[in-house]
Amino acid sequence: MDFLPFTRPCLDEDTIAAVTAVLRSGWLTTGPKAREFEGALSAYVGGRPVRVMNSATAALEIALRIAGIGPGDEVITTPLSWVATANVILAVGATPVFVDVDRESRNIDLNRLEAAITPRTRALLPVDLAGLPVDRDRLYAIARRHDLRVIEDAAQSCGAQWQGRRLGSMGDLVAFSFHANKNMTSGEGGCLVLNDENEARLCEKLRLQGVTRAADGTMDVDVLGGKSNLTDIAAAIGLGQLRQLDGFNARRRYLARQYFVHLDRTLGLELPLPEFEQGNWHMFQPLLPLDRLRITRGAFIESMRAEGIGVGVHYPAMHLFTLYRQRGFAVGDFPVAEDIGQRTITLPLFPAMQDADVLRVCEAVARVLRPVLV
Asked: Catalytic residues, which ones?
């Protein structure tokens, strides 16, 4: 049978034709398609200003700079995410402060968050792991009590909602990702949802060398910017994907439900929270019962590949990476995140999958695990 990856982008012929049209237009870098994409994204989040970039990493870093975060400041985040979440804090010269995760949601534990706030804390940077939203009501109540900015790492939760409102239509600064493995893609890319036009203008400068252009062709630079603009080629892909995002997410929810139906509970897998109203099911991530297995996670992944099925790991607890150990973090600091990071597996989930694909994965999981259960 064909190899089934853990994710695959779904690109239709209209999107491919739109990319071809951009290539033929001669305008490949940031131009009319990027502006059209920004307008469509703004409409999707209720009219708030949106600026697109070449990655969500760039969007997060620019958000920190817009919020005035720099050396001497602390930013509280989760240790269970793609490492970019904390790297951007280091990139602006600030200090990442980790708070362990809640075992059920696997998001930052809001019960522990306030204890980590110090006089140096300037912002909260939560992550919606696997597309499951952090409780926005509690999060923003904490931020208001302590006069903190919130930079939402919503890289995985595009199209998700909180209490009936789309993420990005509310809150402070919100970053989405359009990486190839996300619920909608532009190949590579991301965007930042901003509060007003002043922040949007600053964002434009920070994403392209700090440049402000005048109608007469002159320009000025008054801030230090970088190079993180999005091409029109990528924007054409993103426009096609955005039109299908809600349908993609509905399909993901359906497929996730099928996993709950067909995975053999006697295997001891710890399943994710069965939430089907707010999240977008960016990933389906059981935890392996390693204390009951005679094989490692690596051996499980290898055996699944032999079955023709791709399995990912999202994510190891980032405070255990060398870069963060060098900054004083150690094993045992955040035991819940460490346990989840050691046992998590990402099973295939993408809109083009059929019911039979889910059944195929579940049967393969059972074939691999049942002989090695202790």
From this structure: 182
Read out DSSP for 65-79? Answer: HHTT--TT-EEEE-S
Closest by alpha carbon to 172, among 270, 276, 68? 68
Whether the Cβ atoms of residue 186 and residue 210 lie closer than 8 Å to each other: no
7 occurs within a structural domain: no
Residues 6 or more apart whose CB falls under 8 angstroms from that of 256 comprise 276, 281, 284, 349
254 and 227 share one domain: no
Look up tokens 């990442």; give the residue: 96
Domain boundary residue, one of 189, 218, 240: 240
- The reply to whether 279 falls in a domain is yes
Task: pLDDT band for 259, please (50, 70, 90 cuts).
Answer: very high
Instruction: Give pTM, 2 decimals.
Output: 0.97
- Residue 303 lies in domain: 246-372
69-113 pLDDT, tens digit per residue, is 999 999 999 999 999 999 999 999 999 999 999 999 999 999 999
Q: What is the DSSP letter of 137?
A: H
Residue 18 and residue 98 share a domain: yes
Give the pLDDT confidence of 340-373 residue by residue, as tens digits.
999 999 999 999 999 999 999 999 999 999 999 9
